[in-house]
């Protein structure tokens, strides 16, 4: 039996949808809880647009105006640094695309001041990763992940950097970050890079981006991998899915071929339940959501409709992050993730929160070469 969504959660959903701006608010809203929930779901700029013009919200607007202002400043920083990226990669001949953050803000969400983001994600062809990294370092970007032996050991497909403006940039050579994820999911980044489109962001910089179907696949997969437990990620998928240029048949075929169909279909269903929409999901993809993980997600949303609020129990979204194409695979992933969380919690209880070992400055040239060679070897071999 379905449970009604709570008024505060409903207000958050309206904010992320981008409608009902200025309409009257539910009675007895607690300002502290409102801001706490908006911050948790990363929708404070969108919440500000929803509340703008509401007499009941006048005392909250200075805080929300400041959040919007901070996001616009971050947007300007991102644009500045992406200009540097574009020039550096053009000179080095790097195949690349920027995704999420500024792309979603300027081209996907209803208004560019709604989508909160705090970093830029840049994806490069694995064969071009070494020259991409070198060209960024020569253009004023700094490594945040500086522990090369640890980078080699972990073999993550993501490197944290900081741009000339100080804005964080994550440089990726695969959509799936960890070796475990890459062994399960087979998203073909080089193929996606062959389909990129050029757009000009609101900051005036022109960058390549994934085509509408690939962008939808990326944001849906990203949401699932992170537990689909933040409203901003579910809204990303909503707004990307509403683009009439999405080729849904190709989207479904790609999801099935790359083994992401189960988590992606579950996220699409959560979008439909959250925003009361019906997406044109092809039947072959919709059927996958009836998996064990998909049924668990349906039951959770029926008992307590998404989005959850800060003091709610069970917000991890394990049923999404562990979803695999088979029930056995999903169960194994869930147990592994559960055990990993317990291990980290035990370590924190013993020693406190540990520093990120990747932040240690260990400029091991041999480890750097080994890591970059491994990335190059991960690139698909193209026919001559």
TrEMBL record:
Keyword list, A-Z: Transferase
Pfam families attached to this UniProt entry: NTP_transf_5
Gene Ontology terms, MF aspect: transferase activity
Keyword Transferase on entry: yes
Protein name, UniProt field: Putative nucleotidyltransferase-like protein
Organism: Paramicrobacterium agarici
Lineage start: Bacteria, Bacillati, Actinomycetota, Actinomycetes, Micrococcales
